[in-house]
Structures are given as structure tokens and as C-alpha cells.
Specification:
453 residues; mainly alpha; Citrate Synthase, domain 1; three-stranded antiparallel sheet; 5% strand; disordered N terminus; binds acetyl coenzyme *A
């Protein structure tokens, strides 16, 4: 709901307003008193927020730039009005387009959820069939991409290969530059969602030195992905239905998460009007970091480093001493149990029943048990996040650790595109360009090198 701009007027201090009168007439405004000048400013409040630009009129001297808000890491700044995903981090709620994540995880498929994220409504039967057909028929990648992959070392991280090959797609589809053309955007959406598993599968096979496996259009989206990863000599790959469904649900849970680091990267880079492949490569790079989608890889490394249940208390002590973080714990938005972590824990047991229990599970459960009772974590509201258990599942399913963030990037693509498109079509959005508070040197003259100390 775009806000109607309202004119901003500085108001003079209200000298004798009785308190009862002020309470009798509540207004959706915020009155700010600038104690430097004694001036008051009345600023509209919309959706519980004020516009940072409304602060600009606050100045001591008319020649000044005006007041800004300082918010490193966007701790308390809304960068957009979005209709895609809703999170209430205090109570642990996550909804895509209004649908609770728990219902989608139980009843939907990843491709249907991707449609919901992108088109705002669940598809009818014809729309879903058409959507799946188009995604399925955009899974092949240009043969030249294989040559790029061949150029990577055998031990190259698959996220590096994924980021590079996504960016390379832009060179194959110059039509993607036509970002304000709805049909073009749709085509790039089919391509991106369709090709991500193929790029990921090929990167994985390259790291093993195994031949690439081409997409199989008869398989489901997650089933085909498993095919491209794990098929060997069999003529037809038949994915295990439990693993196929587990992967599909994990894809649903990872599809979007409102303005997280990578969605913000997608919007920010996309705001320069670059093509969506380049913006998706940037978002994938953001996801790679250990504080974001790379955390699931870090969780496993951490559990392996702890080594045994007996060593967990010692490890927690080190975390509390600030020597390291308990990876897979804590979240900028969730100050309660991440609802995705709860669902993922359930999937973990389904997968373990089939594949055998992951020996690291006991260590993870002990970390969780201690952390949920410990004052350090309780006080800071640190709960398991989406990444705490995903690594254990992926490992049991046969994925190497380096593939974990790749498994996150594949489904997040639909969320990134939904966020990107919303940004592009929002008349209030412009190229993203934050301000700074300059605290560096004042002007000084160049000193020739021979005169420098
Ligand atoms: N282990 C130990 N202490 C932690 C952890 C953790 N995992 N996370 C936060 N804290 C502590 C901080 O040290 C800080 O303590 P202080 O107040 O004494 O200084 C306090 O909790 C607040 O932490 P911030 O870093 O300010 O919280 P922020 O919102 O910036 O960070 C983040 C969120 C990055 C997720 C953080 O919790 C973290 O690093 N977690 C581990 C990495 C992780 O699991 N990332 C995946 C997130 S989910 C995702 O991206 C898909």
C-alpha cells in the first residue's frame, strides 16, 4: 500500500496544550523537538514508520544538508513496502503471500510455492501444469557453460562455480536486459528457476570428475535434481520418494525470507537495472557467506570439531566467552524458535529413518538442549535457525558439505525473482544508494613522495 505523500511543515512549540486535549485527539504523526533550535516538526507515521527523508528538513542552519538517520546493517530500517513474505520474529511466524509455512510444507510442492511467491496467488490446475511445463523445458543449459566448468579446479567450491555460471547466463540471453517487458521477465524466470538445478548438478559432477548428467523431463523438479547429481550407469534414474519429498519440502522452506542479506543484494543490484542473471549472481554471492546461507556448512564443520556429546559443555563455554559463535543459532529477525527449524527437525528424523541416523545428531541435540537452557542464549533470544539441522539432513542424503549453500540457492531463486520484480515495479523505488556520515580527513594537499615520512 503506497503511502500518500504528505507535506511536511515545521510546527512551532505548542506552549499551553493541556495534556488531556492532546490525548483526546490522537494523530498518526510524530512530533520531534530539535533541542538545538527549539523547533518542533510533525512527521506523518504510516504503517508504523516514518520516512527517513522527512527528517531532512530538520536543520540548524538552512545551508545544512539536513538530518539523516544512521542505521548500519539496516537494523531498524524498512527499505521497501513488500507483499511477498511476512515474518513475525517474536512469535516465530513465517507466511508466503499470507499462507503459513507449515501448511505449504505439508500440502504444497516447491514449484507451486514458487508460483505463489511470483504471482501472489496459488495456481489453478491449468496454470500449475503450464508453469511446470515451462520450468521443465528450460532446464537445459548451453553447451558452452560446460566449458566454463571445465576451467575450474577439481576442488573448486561449487558456490563459486554456481555464481560464475549464473552470471555467464546473462551473456547467452541478451534479451534479459529488457527488464520492463513482462514477457521477457517471465521467460528469464522460467530459465533461472529451470537452470539453477542444472548448474548446481553440473558443478557437483565437475568436482567429482564425473560426466555431466542431463535433465530428465519426466522427473519432478527435486527428482530431476537428484538425477543430475547421483545418476551413474542406470538407464533411468528413480529417485527415492522419501528423499525426493524431503528435498521438495526443504526447497519450500528456503524459497523466500523477506529482506534478508541476499534478497537485499538482489534488490540493490537489480535497482541499477542490470539483467536478472547478474543480479541473481550477486544474490547468490551474498548467500555464500557463513553468516547467511553458508552457515549450514559451518554448522557441520562445528559439530565435527566438537566431536562428541561430552565435549559440548566445553564448546558452549568457548562460545559464551566470545571465542566463537554457535553456528546455526541466532537470527536478525527471529527472537523465537525459527518455524523452519521446527519443520526441518521433523524432516531430519524421516530422512534418518531411511538413511540411518547421522552420528552428529546427538551433538547437535546436546548443543540445542544446553543453549535453550543457558542464560547467555536465553537472554539474547538465540534459538536454532533454518541452518542448524539442514546440514545433518543433507549429509545423510549424501551431499558433500560444499553443496549445502548450493542447496539453499536453488529454491531461493524464486524468492529473489519475486523480490526483484516487486522492486522493479514499485514506482517509489530508485537505484539503491545509501548515504554515509563522513568521518575521514578534512581537505589536505598532496605531498610529493620524497617529502613523506
Ligand atoms: N552464537 C553466540 N552468540 C551469538 C550468536 C551465535 N550464533 N548469534 C548472536 N550472538 C550474540 C552476539 O555475540 C551478540 O551478543 P552481545 O549482545 O553480547 O554482543 C548478540 O547475540 C546479538 O548478536 P548480533 O550479532 O548483534 O545479531 P545479528 O542480528 O547482527 O546477527 C546472525 C544475526 C548473523 C544470524 C547471528 O546470530 C549469527 O552470526 N549466527 C550464526 C550464523 C548463522 O547461523 N547464520 C545463519 C542465519 S539464518 C540465514 O541466514 C539463512
Amino acid at each position: 500500500m503506497p503511502r500518500t505523500p504528505r507535506a511536511m511543515n515545521p510546527v512551532q512549540p505548542a506552549t499551553h496544550t493541556p495534556k488531556s486535549e492532546a490525548l483526546a485527539a490522537p494523530r498518526d504523526t510524530l512530533t520531534i523537538t530539535d533541542n538545538r533550535t527549539g523547533k518542533q516538526y510533525e512527521i506523518p507515521i504510516t504503517n508504523g514508520a516514518i520516512r527517513a527523508l522527512d527528517l531532512r528538513q530538520i536543520k540548524v542552519d538552512p545551508r545544512e544538508f539536513g538530518m539523516m538517520s544512521y542505521d548500519p546493517a539496516f537494523n531498524n530500517t524498512a527499505s521497501c513496502i513488500s507483499h511477498v513474505t511476512y515474518i513475525d520474529g517474536d512469535v516465530g511466524i513465517l507466511r508466503y503471500r499470507g499462507y503459513p509455512i507449515e501448511e505449504l510444507a505439508e500440502k504444497s510442492t516447491y514449484l507451486e510455492t514458487a508460483y505463489l511467491l511470483l504471482f501472489a496467488e496459488l495456481p489453478n490446475a491449468t496454470q500449475l501444469k503450464d508453469w511446470i511445463w515451462h520450468i521443465t523445458h528450460h532446464t537445459f543449459i548451453h553447451e558452452s557453460i560446460k566449458k566454463f566448468l571445465d576451467g575450474f579446479h577439481y576442488d573448486a567450491h561449487p558456490m563459486g562455480m554456481l555464481i560464475s555460471t549464473i552470471a555467464a547466463l546473462s551473456t547467452f540471453y541478451p534479451d534479459a536486459k529488457d527488464i520492463f517487458n513482462k514477457d521477457s521477465r517471465l521467460k528469464q524466470t522460467w530459465r533461472l528457476i529451470g537452470k539453477m538445478p542444472t548448474l548446481a548438478g553440473f558443478a557437483y559432477r565437475h568436482s567429482l570428475g564425473m560426466p555431466f548428467v542431463y535433465p530428465d523431463n519426466e522427473l519432478s523438479y527435486p527428482g530431476n535434481f537428484l538425477n543430475m547429481l547421483f545418476r551413474t550407469t542406470e538407464l533411468k534414474y528413480h529417485p527415492n520418494p522419501t528423499l525426493e519429498r524431503a528435498l521438495d519440502v526443504l526447497f519450500i522452506l528456503h524459497a523466500d525470507h523477506e529482506q534478508n542479506c541476499s534478497a537485499n543484494a538482489m534488490r540493490c543490484v537489480g535497482s541499477s537495472h542490470v539483467d536478472p542473471y547478474s543480479a541473481t549472481a550477486a544474490a547468490t554471492a551474498a548467500l555464500y557467506g557463513p553468516l547467511h546461507g553458508g552457515a549450514n556448512e559451518e554448522v557441520l564443520a562445528m559439530l565435527m570439531e566438537i566431536g562428541s556429546v561430552q565435549k559440548v559443555p566445553d564448546f558452549i563455554k568457548r562460545v559464551k566467552a566470545g571465542e566463537q559463535r554457535l553456528m546455526g543459532f541466532g537470527h536478525r529477525v527471529y527472537k523465537n524458535y525459527d518455524p523452519r527449524a521446527r519443520l526441518i527437525k521433523r524432516i531430519a528424523y524421516e530422512v534418518f529413518e531411511l538413511m540411518g541416523k547421522n552420528p552428529l545428531l546427538e551433538i547437535a541435540l546436546e548443543c540445542e538442549r544446553i543453549a535453550l537452557e543457558d542464560d547467555y542464549f536465553v537472554k539474547r533470544k538465540l534459538y536454532p535457525n533454518v541452518d542448524f539441522y539442514t546440514g545433518l539432513i543433507y549429509q545423510s542424503m549424501g551431499f558433500p558439505m560444499t553443496m549445502f549453500p548450493v542447496l539453499f540457492a536453488i529454491p531461493r531463486t524464486s524468492g529473489w525473482i519475486a523480490q526483484w520484480e516487486e522492486m522493479l515495479l514499485d514506482p517509489e523505488q530508485k537505484i539503491a544508494r545509501p548515504r554515509q556520515i563522513y568521518a575521514g580527513q578534512d581537505t589536505r594537499s598532496y605531498v610529493p613522495i620524497e617529502q613523506r615520512a
